[in-house]
Amino acid sequence: xxxxxxxxxxxxxxxxxxxxxxxxxxxxxxxxxxxxxxxxxxxxxxxxxxxxxxxxxxxxxxxxxxxxxxxxxxxxxxxxxxxxxxxxxxxxxxxxxxxxxxxxxxxxxxxxxxxxxxxxxxxxxxxxxxxxxxxxxxxxxxxxxxxxxxxxxxxxxxxxxxxxxxxxxxxxxxxxxxxxxxxxxxxxxxxxxxxxxxxxxxxxxxxxxxxxxxxxxxxxxxxxxxxxxxxxxxxxxxxxxxxxxxxxxxxxxxxxxxxxxxxxxxxxxxxxxxxxxxxxxxxxxxxxxxxxxxxxxxxxxxxxxxxxxxxxxxxxxxxxxxxxxxxxxxxxxxxxxxxxxxxxxxxxxxxxxxxxxxxxxxxxxxxxxxxxxxxxxxxxxxxxxxxxxxxxxxxxxxxxxxxxxxxxxxxxxxxxxxxxxxxxxxxxxxxxxxxxxxxxxxxxxxxxxxxxx
Length: 453
Ligand code: ADP
Ligand code: ASP
Ligand code: MG
Known about the structure:
With 453 residues, this protein is an alpha/beta fold. The protein has a domain at 3-228: Carbamate kinase, CATH 3.40.1160.10. 37% of the residues lie in helices and 22% in strands. The structure holds adenosine-5'-diphosphate, aspartic acid (ASP) and magnesium ion. Belongs to the aspartokinase family.
């Protein structure tokens, strides 16, 4: 068959809890069966597996401790394997993955080489996709396990690899489309490969991004993100029971929410969707009948307030020089150092002699963290103050910078809390507040009451 697009193609992604065990996988199989347009399936590692792999990759441990982690991973995967009818066919392949996994885990350099870490991390998705394709076959869906590394080409920034869109589009059309005529392809989220063929990963939560990238490369019409909540909510339902699911969202709103902490979507997921106008659905694989959120270009409504997000573990850096008034290029110098250390700045405020900015700094992130070296480099030409224990709370909406009264309602709701930094006006879709981490839950709840209840 020629490698031209398939009509109405849907790419479905199932997150960690959705492929956590055999029963959860069975729900996913039913979802796939019910939509004949679903021809590409992207899976995360079974819940808990990536965390265990990250522990092995990032923490110096004794061989005994490593074996303990490996056996925890093994018992998650064995439980699924044992529920399969065609164990004999799948077991040798799983064993192969397990032995390459334990070889990497016990490698002397595992804590020091980013390429080995990514190879190790990729095993979670490689095992779950193998098992899930067997589950689909068991439920009469003809499925093949497809190695995403043949298609998902990236640079060599291990842990946070950047996809090469052109190569992905060519390879997806060449290698995946022809196979979709008579099979569903089950492939790995989160994983890619660089130009030399080394395994890379896209950053935590990256399987959503994989699904959107493949949807883009294949010219899909829709991309479904099946997870453990019945859509994108007004705020994280774990923060307040008053949060409620949203029937629709615009690409921009969803992108803002993901960027500012709504974990339900990886921050980059909306980029391919926006470029190719791919409708994205978010729903619960456990309760598909409850519907979910459709993320589209144009929504029926454009409310001033759509949702509230929170991002934890932010640091605020203030650099100050008495010479700033006269010193041209001060900001450039500061941001060159930040860029060289591959740190990404979120909020910025400036005064005549100082500039403050925030950085995402979660302890278990694979992203670069603010380190002593960066602080010392900055310290060579200005005073540097680093403040920790902040969270970023963001209200996401529309035309927020141009409608009267939008910000006053927000500030009235949080009048009782110290706002360390405010970011507003650069973008019509958000207003961000940096607050003490001990206040952030209350701040989100107060805003939710004022804006949505
Ligand atoms: P998956 O493993 O399926 O990718 P994640 O744990 O990454 O699932 O994302 C789903 C979780 O995102 C939910 O359980 C919820 O706690 C969290 N979340 C954060 N913000 C939101 C939001 N605004 N709407 C829905 N879920 C959210
Ligand atoms: N398994 C990876 C993680 O836990 C990727 C994903 O689930 O999206 O971060
Ligand atoms: Mg996720």
